[in-house]
Amino acid sequence: MNGPLTNQLTQCESCPRKCGVNRLEGQTGFCGIDARIRISHAGLHLGEEPPISGTRGSGTIFFAGCNLRCVFCQNYQISQEFQQGRTRTLTSAELASDMLRLQDQGAHNINFVSSSHMIFQMADAIQAAKAKGLVVPVVYNSNGYDSVDALRQIRGLVDVYLPDIKYMENEVGERFSAANDYADIIPGVLKEMLNQVGHLETDDEGIAVRGVLVRHLVLPGHLSNSRKCLHFLAGLSPDTAISIMSQYSPRYKACDYPGINRTLTKDEYDEITDYALDLGLENVFIQELDSQNHYLPDFSQDRPFNSSSPISGSSASDLSGND
Ligand code: SF4
Question: Is residue 220 in some structural domain?
Answer without folding.
Answer: yes
